[in-house]
Amino acid sequence: MTRPSQPPNPISTIDAFNPGLAFLKARRAQNLSFMRVAEQSLRTLAAMQAATGAAGAPLARLWAAQAELVHNTASVYRSLTANLAP
Length: 86
Hints:
0% strand, 72% helix, mainly alpha, 86 residues, 2 helices
């Protein structure tokens, strides 16, 4: 005589996604932190170049533009991943 098979006990959807969601949240925080550090470093380089006078002005503008690019990129990334914010 055969036994009736019972369906496996699946993990609930919410519990299954929790580790992945926690990883994505941590990765988002790490990425935003890295972008903040990169922006601050570029702004510091721009300030140091600007302090050298007219000879450093072109490089100071370059560093400032790169810092602004990183800032804008972080802003877009923050908006796109807002659903992962704690």
